[in-house]
Design a protein that fits this description.
heterotrimer, A alpha/beta (615), B mainly alpha (328), C alpha/beta (351), A: MetI-like fold, Rossmann fold, 8-stranded mixed β-sheet, 5-stranded antiparallel β-sheet, 13% strand, elongated, B: mainly alpha, MetI-like fold
Chain lengths: 615, 328, 351
């Protein structure tokens, strides 16, 4: 596409430059003996009413047509962008007034405004250019305004204001560079439509006046004899379309270049696979996943956010999955729920949900199993509900689709569920739309929706991160109640280690796509044995610890998610590393009752814990 | 000041619709004022003498003076403006400088044909672009079917770059003159509508197709769609119930902007097809330098655009009540 | 009055969708030099609006703002420039706080040269001194923000704020977007910088534990008002305002577990700030207020705000707890205590 675009643009430029020189004379030479001829060998497009060669006129008109279009576009763009960008740096009142003005001007279609001003400025090339500039300026102003508003909202603009930078500096240094790229793109596309509009004005007799001529005028003259001879009208039309499309494609190409995405590289299977560790199977098991891996091909290579996670959940158990950003906890959850983004690929050695291996199921059976057995609660209740559907519809659609529950019965069930999450006045709530509810209410509705299907497993992906701390506690209490009443297993994903310690029965600590420690929640504070978990716990500011005691910090950063990790992923940052850690990857293996750890050299038990154990 | 604005705030909270309608009405009045004043100013501000231009260069000076007096152009601007408004209020749009016929009659005779053309074209745009864009988005989501995507973007680019009047000329040449499938010009029954509507609708359809696709892709990436996927709803219900309504508001907002542009576009297309509408009347009077008619047609088209804008805004507000609250 | 930052009767209004909304209502607060006041509250409590108003970013702001004994008013560019020399703000999100098209060096140079003209050499010296101060290596200077980690970016943002040698630093949720292990480092750095440079600091956060670790005094905001101000340990040990108590009860604690709540948690939703409740703004949700105890109708009619002024431990409540009304809120002094949460073994549950 790029080649075609450049060829089209190149040919136009060359024609515009050399056209008048090469064909200008031929185009202006009248020939009274060959007036209004059709296409012949001598005159490929025929001749006009003065016997001038139409092909020569068409080619010679390129320069003027393009020049006027570019001039009008640049004029309009300069005026409009100045107006629009100014809105970013002026006061609130001025900004509102400018905005209202732009709105008002935009209410009228550009062509109509252009015709009005073309009449007002007087028919002629100059008048048409100015008229088009006036007509197109509000559009540019609007785009610049929208883009600039986005920049104004950013924190770096606020910081620049706090630094007391002056308006022109704000405009030149911070606003314009950020909006330049999309604006250039827009200007390119606009040049195409200006060319068309300009031809339109000439076509109406409001643009270029004889004896000058551009494509629009040629088209207009050709149209008068379209019954006898279509070509003199069609040829200028083709020229206009050709140029218009060329600009359009150029804009397209620039947009593509701005958001360039290269082809993902080939995915290579990871070489190292840790040894298989036998786990005691239990009848109570709801979910059992072994060696789960997720790979996402990107422009820069394959990211491996999850590198061999094994976990299991029993009925009625809340298990916390805790880790810092980039540890792969959310993708682990999405992979379990089969909700990974299209391009992400997940593999596993075993994935047993409700006792059946997913590999033994057909696609349809798997969907059915997930639909009825698993529910997901997402992080942001503000965006997890469809804004255009009523709460009632969204709560009942799953049972109605999968259990074929009649509507009335489903509503009845929804009311009961709402009662359970302490949302009375259910009827009114079911009729409301998501935006009418507060964040806490929405998350409670999300929990009610999830338990509508009586799922065996609820995956709660950071369900309280977007909420206030008082609401957080309510939500967590609700989840605990549901698992107690329904014996639902809950996988509770969070970055907040204190919250997980207070909420869950068991905690899985993730680091760099692996689970490094699996321990009872009450042991988090003092009973951790993995160096990473210990450091993480010690870095959490606390409500009770000595304030003057400095918090622990972990030096370095997590390993590159693109690279291969041969040894322990925490090796680079570990204070207790030894040679073996660099070469062999530790496997999650049992350490004590209910305690597993992926470390070759677990830390000794903390003093107090040891004393307790001795007792 | 504070209590005043607080009271207004309370009013807005309890009656967002009332406030929305008031604001919209205020905007309509301001824009109407703009249109009326603009059209009034047009004939008085153009370089040269419009009367002389209409009557011809060699018209007798006293004839010109008489005509000027007849139109009231020799009075001071304020009196003229007042008189202009008074005439407008009675539906009097003045008389043609050339033929002396009342312009209002001309408008009454020709406006329906123009509006019918624009509305038909708009309906075509919606019928093709709304489902088309949705399907295109679903097909090409997440980088699927890259070749289809390329064809789609290229085709819509070319279509969007195709000016209506050029397309009209091409269609006339191809389908009407050469193949004689359709009438070349004028309104000769349903067949005559095909070409003008096609010429008017093609480019806006392409524009809207792209917009609908982009909007749909945005919705497909939303959190709530992931939540709906987590419920494993059937595809039909997922796309029609969860995706389509959410793309509709944004798409129709853009479509609403296309309708006024369609009305303006009729001027050029009507000229090509010699359509008995208000656009061709305007084109003819531009050629004849009959600025009284140009002025009146600009006024009528501008007012039509404003009414259409109002209707579109109201329709959008009914469709998406949140936009009412957001805008007020 | 000691120098530093003093706010008196500051009111901040926004242009809401339904007319002006009072985000901060007649708030007074003092932050002496070299000390930190922690400002806590939930979303919508007005803490960020207050921060933005102090640095002149709010739509409309009335009341007195005094920095180092000098009063600041006016909203023009020169006023903002005078204020900017004294008060600087660090933002929550390090991803958007730095201009992505400027290198760290350019960002810092712009800030350092905002009020004084510097020649090239002094400027370079200043930049490397700033980087060193916030614990970044010199090579960082020529990188773009997107090439740095979140923690590093937040350090740059702090350096930019400190580039003008402000008397007051306002940190608005600066650790909220960061991971736990990085958060600790930023908190430690802030304490360290304050000790060395002696600026007054307002530390805004919803994370009570983080606030506790840096603040000398904590102020609790609810619906545009400060409901309680007290020295950190006083406030945590014996919170006087029922809202503060609920807040403290809600904070998960790694080493203690949640306190079992005798009082039920907050009822209802945060009221609309555009139409705040009469009297005490907390009364519709208050666990010890008129909803539970009908005789306490004074809460509905009378604003407790003014009686609180002047006490070292200010609580805007008509009924601060007495010894037997509510026992002193000792927050799990024994780190071994498990609170209410006995470890549950899943098998004990009904299945």
């Amino acid at each position: 596409m790029g080649v075609i675009t450049l060829t089209m643009l190149g040919s136009l430029t060359v024609l515009a430059m050399v056209g008048p020189a090469l064909w200008g004379q031929a185009a202006d030479r009248p020939n009274p003996s060959a007036v209004l001829q059709g296409p012949t060998a001598g005159h490929l497009l025929g001749t006009d009413h003065l016997g001038r060669d139409l092909l020569a006129r068409l080619l010679a008109a390129t320069g003027l047509s393009l020049l006027l279009a570019v001039a009008a576009t640049l004029l309009g763009a300069t005026a409009g962008i100045t107006l629009g960008a100014l809105t970013a740096v002026v006061g609130v009142r001025t900004r509102r007034m400018l905005g209202a003005l732009i709105n008002l001007l935009l209410a009228f279609p550009g062509l109509l405004v252009a015709m009005f001003f073309a009449v007002l400025f007087g028919a002629g090339a100059g008048g048409a250019v100015f008229a088009l500039a006036v007509a197109y300026a509000p559009g540019f102003a609007r785009i610049a305004q929208t883009l600039a508003a986005k920049v104004t909202e950013t924190d770096f603009m606020a910081a620049a204001r706090v630094l007391g930078l002056r308006r022109h500096r704000l405009l030149l240094r911070h606003v314009l560079p950020h909006i330049a790229e999309p604006l250039m793109l827009n200007t390119t596309v606009a040049a195409g439509s200006t060319l068309v509009a300009l031809s339109g004005l000439s076509f109406l007799g409001l643009g270029v006046q004889p004896p000058s001529y551009d494509w629009g005028l040629l088209l207009s003259q050709g149209l008068d004899r379209i019954y006898s001879e279509p070509l003199p009208a069609v040829a200028p039309g083709i020229a206009i379309v050709y140029a218009g499309v060329a600009f359009q494609l150029l804009g397209e190409m620039l947009a593509k270049a701005a958001a360039r995405r290269t082809r993902p590289r080939q995915m290579a299977e990871p070489a190292v696979r840790p040894a298989h560790v036998d786990r005691t199977a239990s009848v109570d098991q709801v979910l059992e996943v072994e060696d789960l891996r997720v790979a996402i091909p990107t422009a820069a290579g394959v990211v491996r956010p999850v590198r061999g996670v094994s976990l299991d959940l029993r009925r009625g158990e809340i298990v916390g999955l805790v880790g810092e950003s980039g540890s792969g906890k959310s993708l682990t959850a999405l992979a379990i729920a089969d909700l990974l983004p299209e391009h992400a690929k997940s593999t596993w050695r075993a994935n047993r949900f409700l006792g059946t291996d997913t590999k033994s199921l057909t696609r349809k059976e798997r969907r059915r199993q997930l639909a009825t057995g698993m529910a997901v609660i997402f992080q942001n209740p503000a965006s997890a509900f469809n804004p255009s559907l009523r709460i009632g519809t969204q709560m009942t659609e799953a049972v109605r689709a999968h259990h074929n529950t009649p509507r009335a019965e489903a509503v009845e069930q929804a009311l009961t569920e709402l009662q359970r999450v302490t949302l009375p006045a259910g009827h009114r709530l079911l009729r409301s739309r998501p935006f009418q509810l507060s964040g806490g209410q929405r998350q409670r509705v999300a929990i009610a929706t999830a338990s509508m299907m009586r799922p065996d497993l609820i995956i709660a992906d950071e369900p309280t991160t977007a909420l206030d701390v008082t609401v957080q506690r309510q939500i967590v209490d609700l989840l605990r109640r549901i698992r107690h009443d329904d014996a639902t297993a809950i996988l509770f994903i969070s970055h907040d280690i204190a919250l997980v310690a207070n909420t869950c029965d068991r905690v899985l600590v993730m680091y760099a796509g692996t689970i490094v420690e699996n321990l009872p929640a009450h042991a988090l504070a003092t009973g951790t044995r993995h160096p990473y978990t210990r450091a993480l716990v010690e870095s959490v500011p606390d409500m009770t610890a000595d304030r003057t005691h400095p918090l622990r910090t972990i030096k370095g950063s997590p390993p590159d998610p693109y690279g291969e990790i041969s040894g322990c992923p925490f090796y680079d940052r570990c204070a207790h590393r030894q040679d073996r850690c660099a070469q062999e990857r530790p496997v999650l293996s049992p350490l004590g009752p209910g305690h597993e750890i992926a470390c070759w050299h677990p830390l000794p038990q903390a003093q107090r814990e040891a004393e307790e154990a001795a007792k | 000041m504070t209590t005043m604005s607080a009271r207004l705030g309370a009013l807005a909270r309890h009656h967002p619709w009332a406030v929305f309608c008031c604001r919209r009405a205020a905007r309509l009045i301001v824009s109407l004022f703009l249109v009326v004043t603009g059209s009034f100013a047009m004939i008085r501000l153009i370089p040269g003498d419009p009367v002389r231009a209409a009557l011809g260069v060699d018209a007798a000076p006293d004839l010109v003076a008489a005509k000027r007096h007849e139109f009231g152009l020799d009075q001071d601007l304020l009196t003229q403006y007042r008189q202009y408004l008074r005439h407008l209020a009675h539906g009097d749009l003045g008389v043609s400088l050339v033929t002396g016929e009342p312009v209002a009659d001309l408008v009454r005779a020709r406006l329906p044909a123009t509006l019918l053309l624009a509305v038909l074209a708009f309906a075509c745009v919606l019928v093709v672009a709304l489902p088309g864009g949705l399907i295109a988005a679903v097909w090409t989501r997440d980088g699927r079917r890259p070749r289809t995507e390329l064809v789609f973007t290229t085709a819509t680019s070319v279509m969007a770059g195709m000016p209506d009047f050029v397309l009209a000329a091409g269609l006339t040449a191809g389908l009407a003159v050469s193949l004689r499938l359709f009438p070349v010009s004028g309104d000769l029954g349903p067949q005559s509508y095909v070409l003008p509507v096609l010429a008017l609708a093609l480019a806006p359809t392409a524009v809207l197709l792209r917009i609908v696709r982009v909007e749909t892709l945005k919705v497909l990436a939303e959190d709530y769609l992931r939540a709906a996927r987590a419920k494993r709803l059937p595809a039909f219900s997922l796309y029609l119930r969860h995706v389509a309504p959410n793309t509709l508001t944004a798409s129709l907002t853009v479509a609403g902007n296309l309708l006024p542009a369609l009305i303006a576009g009729t001027v050029l297309v009507e000229k090509v097809f010699a359509w008995p509408g208000i656009g061709s009347a305007m084109a003819q009077s531009v050629a004849a330098q009959d600025y009284a008619v140009v002025e009146a047609t600009v006024l009528v088209l501008g007012a039509a655009v404003l009414v259409v804008n109002l209707l579109v805004d109201l329709a959008l507000a009914l469709l998406d009540p949140r936009s009412v609250i957001r805008k007020t | 009055m000691s120098a530093g930052l003093a706010l008196h009767d500051v009111t901040v209004r926004h242009h809401g969708p339904f007319g002006p909304v009072t985000a901060v209502d007649r708030v007074s607060l003092e932050v002496p030099d070299g000390t930190t006041v922690g400002l806590v509250g939930e979303s919508g409590s007005g803490k960020s609006s207050l921060a933005r108003a102090v640095v002149g970013l709010a739509d409309s702001c009335s009341g007195q703002i005094t920095v180092g004994g000098r009063q600041f008013r006016g909203r023009g560019v020169p006023d903002r420039r005078r204020l900017g020399q004294q008060v600087q703000l660090v933002f929550q999100d390090p991803d958007t706080a730095l201009d992505p098209r400027m290198t760290i060096r350019q960002t810092l140079a712009e800030a350092a040269g905002a009020f004084v003209r510097l020649d090239r050499r002094t400027r370079e010296q200043r930049i490397s001194a700033l980087l060193e101060r916030v614990g970044l290596d010199a090579p960082c200077a020529d990188r773009f923000p997107q090439q740095l980690s979140g923690g590093q970016r937040q350090r740059v943002a702090v350096a930019r704020a400190l580039a003008v040698d402000p008397a007051v630093l306002i940190a608005d949720e600066i650790t909220s977007a960061l991971d736990v292990s990085i958060r600790a480092a930023i908190l430690t750095m802030l304490r360290d910088l304050q000790r060395r440079m002696g600026f007054a600091m307002v530390f805004i956060s919803h994370d009570l534990a983080a606030v506790r670790s840096v603040s000398d005094v904590i102020a609790v905001m609810y619906l545009g008002r400060i409901v309680e101000v007290a020295p950190t340990e006083d406030l945590l040990r014996s919170p006087q305002h029922p809202y503060t108590r609920t807040l403290l009860d809600s904070v998960p604690n790694l080493r203690g577990g949640w306190r079992s709540t005798a009082e039920p948690l907050l009822a209802g939703e945060v009221p609309d700030p555009a139409a705040p409740p009469s009297g005490c703004r907390f009364h519709p949700r208050c666990p010890v207020g008129p909803n539970r105890r009908p005789e306490r109708d004074i809460c509905i009619t009378q604003d407790p705000q003014y009686e609180a002024v002047g006490r070292p431990h200010q609580a805007a409540c008509h009924f601060p707890p007495t010894a037997d009304d509510c026992p002193p809120h000792a927050r799990n002094v024994d780190p071994d205590a498990n609170g209410d949460r006995a470890p549950r073994i899943p098998r004990e549950l009904p299945s």
